[in-house]
Write a sequence for this structure.
């Protein structure tokens, strides 16, 4: 769906654009498939700051974005002076999901978003999804 593997038949469109023929659809699409999408030698703060610059967001926009994930992060992700590679599988997932939602995408692709999350984090993530679904893009 994200044009990572060439299709042998059929096609995928996002906003009526064939994903195999254009890249402009990427501006309205977020994704997190696995921890290999993260830059492991950065801290979560450094990673989010890099994405902030890529998306052209202000520091205030980034702070507001990360605030939406405060409950999900549960004081285990930010401010811990840990590299992404040293986070637990569940916290890797949380960083990736927060990154996928940056830039206010119209659609977000997540592969097994509840995998490696404890039950309380799963509940927090479900609430976040409901909240994001209600937010106009």
């Amino acid at each position: 769906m994200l044009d990572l593997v060439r299709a042998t038949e059929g096609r995928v469109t996002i906003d009526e654009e064939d994903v195999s023929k254009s890249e402009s659809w990427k501006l309205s699409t977020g994704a997190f498939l696995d921890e290999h999408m993260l830059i492991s030698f950065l801290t979560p703060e450094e990673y989010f700051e890099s994405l902030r610059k890529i998306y052209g967001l202000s520091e205030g926009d980034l702070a507001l974005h990360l605030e939406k994930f405060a409950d999900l992060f549960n004081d285990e992700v930010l401010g811990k002076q840990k590299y992404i590679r040293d986070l637990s599988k569940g916290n890797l997932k949380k960083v990736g999901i927060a990154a996928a939602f940056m830039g206010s995408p119209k659609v977000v692709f997540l592969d097994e978003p509840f995998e490696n999350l404890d039950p309380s984090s799963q509940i927090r993530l479900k609430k976040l999804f409901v909240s994001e679904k209600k937010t106009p893009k």
